[in-house]
What does this fold into?
Amino acid sequence: MSGYDLDAGDAPPVPLPEAAPSRLARWRDSDLLASFLGSKTAMAALIATVLMVGLAFASSWIAPQNPYDPAQLDLINSNLPPIWQADGQAPFYLGTDDQGRDVLSAVLYGLRLSLIVGVLGVLTSGVLGIALGLIAGYAGGALDTLIMRVADVQLTFPAILIALVVDGVARASFGGALDVGPLIGLIVVSIGLSFWVQYARTVRSSVMVEKGKDYVQAARLIGLSPPVILVRHVLPNVTGPVFVIATINLALAIITEATLSFLGTGLPETMPSLGTLIRTGNRFLFSGEWWIVAFPGLALAGLVIAINLLGDWLRDALNPKLQ
Amino acid sequence: MSAYVEVTDLRRRFDVSKPWLNRVLEREPRKFLTAVDRVGFEIAKGETFAIVGESGSGKSTVARMVVGLLPPSAGEVRITGISMTDPRQAAARRRMRSRIQMIFQDPYASMNPRWRVGKIVAEPIRAFNLIQGEGAIRARVAELLGLVGLHADDSKKYPHEFSGGQRQRVAIARALASQAEFLVGDEPTSALDVSVQAQILNLMRDLQDRLGLTYLFISHNLAVVRHMATRVGVMYLGRLVEVAAARDLFARPRHPYTRMLLDAVPDLAHVGRARVPVSGEIPNPIDPPPGCTFNPRCPLANDRCRAEVPALLDGVACHAVQEGRA
Amino acid sequence: MTEKILSVRDLTVAFDTRRGPLTAIDRVSFDIHRGEILGVVGESGAGKSVTGAAVIGLIDRPGRIAGGEILLRGERIDNLSPEAMRRVRGRRIGMIFQDPLTSLDPLFRVGDQIVETLRTHTDLSGRAARTRAIDLLAEVGIPAPERRIDGYPHEFSGGMRQRVVIALALAAEPELIIADEPTTALDVSVQAQIITLLKRLCREHGTAVMLVTHDMGVIAEAADRVAVMYAGRVAEIGPVASVIAKPHHPYAVGLMGAIPTLSQEAARLSQIPGSMPRLTAIPKGCAFNPRCPKVFSRCRVERPEPIPVDASRVACHLYDAAERAA
It folds into this structure.
């Protein structure tokens, strides 16, 4: 019944408000905030995400141990169970692994590493996808066809396969001995190349809608060049959906990194991410040291679920038509 | 006196074929829609030339070709003698660019929703490098907003804080910002309520008187056209069927379509009017009738009308009128 | 006096928002008699469509009828259960909406949609219903109805589709038809056909029609009486000829003067300053007072009740006997 829609049809036009409200006032008054305060799931997800991100980045100060520093590991402390079990001892609240590495510290440091790789991966794929989507959508024609065909082909491969191929090719050409820095770069690029398609498609379709709108025509009439129109007028108006994809993709990127590490092509055991911890911990699952794999696994699952819930809420809040 | 705008033999074809693969599989030929067919008219400086027509008449396509948003398939638009298509006049055309602006139908879509009004109005000034210095630009924006009946403080607001009529005022201010002298209005008031429409129509007439503007006014609303135009062109299915001074057209419509249209408009003066409305609807423009496109609905149509396209002679494109049958 | 079909008394519709309830319709009263067309006219935000929706019980959450009553032939229908209201809709009240394409199901043949309505609301058998459907299509002017009855909606032109919608609304011989902007999506020439059809059918069947539109020209031609709405209230209601020729309420006066007409050339349209208030900011007293040229102190504090003036009822303090005497 769109004819009776209070907002579109019968909401009377705005008379002159006395003064333009400030940015803060508009945010306080916005539907986004109201929708957020109305959703318990979204609030819980945000609190959980903020908590985990906070803990991860405070890990250098709050973790009992630096798990990347071999000098701090002591084999005497190896294979200790969590503190609430009979043999548990402080400060190893969640137990230790076979190297004597504190599981809590490893989880916190691993969380940080996973988040860094995930965010960088999302940024890479986002920049790549948005740029290609803008070009394809605005230029149209052969360039559009080319970019979108590449995207179609890429979509037929699972993201993890692409990441494995990129990773494998790079390792083969640089040899096995890569420093941790370049290694993180490599994983980020792998993730970027596997996730750009979704951004490109979304941005392209938004651009095709926006470029037909009269404000873009008005910009053409004052003689602005296509790149200027794209960046100044079109881009700011297509960011909403991109933001949603980025949030949901952050969860996917973290899982991809974990999967790569789990398969042994990701981060090494000397600098473990959550995926690496799960891989190494897996070996002890049947010998009874369940905590070595369980806590990294729980941390990964918790982080991914929280971010996903946040992304779902954001999608619904920004686009009521999708519900 | 030579005309300010000269449009000669303007045509525009759109390719509406299915994608190549579907055409091959379904053995279909390419399909074209002739949106505008051999349209020619002139606009004198300082006058308002209106093009009136129903949906599918091609009036908006003409407007977009005149301002240069859409290249014509054939024909030419010259403004102050400068061709809008000839590559040899590209430099002269660039200098012209700022003089020609457009006012769009939907004031909600014609402004970047994320920009403040001050920035929107200042954009043409910056793009054409008309004024240097932030303070001078701000002063000019305030002056423009005042000119269209808004307050200088309104420049701090976003488009969504304005009503439709106020936004259309902003759009006019933006068009004037580039020192435009020729404004093309594509149904500039059809998205507005009548009381607001009156405000905008009055404003456009006031600005024309004060600044000597020339208007090309596109509308489907005959009463609005009557109020605004000095001369009127009537379009039907891509062709200009009648061109006349507004006063003559409304007093003595000549083309059968113009007569039908004038008779069909519901009007305040016709309380409780009982009449026999014309039958039929506008045919699909992809597959228009041969000859005069109005022939299936025309009470005066004969075999010649069904075979031969009438030329626009002495302001009217109709065999019946030319043969003295009407 | 002919029989009253619809009687709306002090109807109030509110929308609950998180900032509290907003009153979209505020104590609106009117009657429609047998065979009469009541035009409900207003600009966007006037509440005309919400009034129509309230009568057919289509106010969805967060909206609700917050007061008053709606009587169909003397029976209250505003407090019926959703199930009982569904039986009233279609059977006793027919509906015609703006866009004929969305009011027909694209996947069903038009005949099947009419037959379905007939079989839901009457006790006609399948064969009899089909015969009746063909008669209905013939009655609304669809050529070759026995063939067209098996067509799908997309095979009909816009005007023909709206005719099908009218046939659908008439199918169960309702006492009242609510037509919400029935001609707005159509071209001028087709508009005239639909208005003529609606008038003829209403006269022949004795159906009462509530014609909701923003187009005063359509009201002038089609309606017997007209209610002019402003900010959710009826400003003036009376016979169409007198409201158009000699409006009383200052808003109605301004509105009539703002509409350009074909019959006369006005140098300037009269314009009402400002725009319709938002639901969140309806002024105290008379809702029109900030824009009214004749405002006086009482208008700012006390809401005017409708008073009989000539043949109309006008909600304006200017016409109060006490003010006139003073």
About this structure: Residues 1-21 of chain A have pLDDT under 50 and may be disordered.
